[in-house]
Design goal:
This protein is an alpha/beta fold. The protein has one domain: Dihydrofolate Reductase, subunit A (3-Layer(aba) Sandwich). The protein is built from five helices and ten strands; from the N terminus they run E-E-H-E-H-H-E-E-H-E-H-E-E-E-E. The strands form two sheets. The chain has an eight-stranded mixed β-sheet, sandwiched between helices. Strands 2-8 form a two-stranded antiparallel ribbon. The protein starts with a strand and ends with a strand. The relative contact order is 0.26. One of its GO terms (biological process) is riboflavin biosynthetic process. It comes from Filimonas lacunae. It holds the Pfam family RibD_C.
């Protein structure tokens, strides 16, 4: 059975994006890319909300082909091409997408089926509104949060819509030279 794992950057005060969706405060460099790549390549299923998926689709399918593509771009583009993508959307047409399953309004039951039929992790990338919907249904099993040393003061929170207090167990930490800290937590469900 698969586990849904949230993979997201956050500000120190708990925001996934600024008030208008800004993410220009997120620090990424080769050290963070390499760490993330080791983590990401251990999975063969990725979960996205529609907005994040459309951003990914606009970049990753051709990223490795661009002149001067970085090592990260080449590696992640190869992974993205092969990984099975699951997208929560009421508007996307699955028939026009390669290696992609689109889940609409009955996402809770559909994701439970995806979990039953997946071995290993299902990585949920970014997608704050999708994370909020899944948190409300206790569908997230673990979190890899990249805590950036910045305070936004306001914005789109990482955690929202939980029906009750959610306990977590810290499994791992990693401090990057930039000051970003990765926290890996397991959710303690009921």
């Amino acid at each position: 059975m698969g586990n849904i794992v949230l993979f997201m950057h956050t500000s120190l005060d708990g925001f996934a994006a600024g008030p208008k969706g800004e993410m220009d405060w997120i620090h990424v460099d080769e050290e963070i890319f390499d760490f993330g790549a080791k983590r990401i390549t251990k999975t063969n299923t990725a979960l996205y909300g529609r907005i994040t998926f459309e951003m990914m689709e606009s970049y990753w399918p051709t990223a490795a082909d661009k002149p001067g593509a970085s090592k990260h771009d080449r590696e992640h583009a190869a992974w993205y091409k092969e990984v099975h993508k699951v997208v929560l959307s009421n508007t996307l047409n699955q028939d026009t997408l390669k290696n992609t399953t689109v889940i609409g309004k009955h996402y809770v039951d559909a994701l439970r089926d995806v979990k039953k039929n997946t071995t290993g992790e299902i990585l949920l990338f970014g997608s704050p509104s999708t994370a909020h919907a899944l948190l409300a249904e206790n569908l997230i099993d673990a979190c890899w949060l990249f805590v950036n040393p910045v305070l936004l003061g306001e914005g789109i929170p990482v955690f929202k819509n939980m029906k009750e207090k959610q306990s977590m167990t810290l499994l791992q930490t990693h401090v990057f030279s930039s000051g970003v800290v990765c926290l890996h937590h397991k959710m303690q469900h009921g």
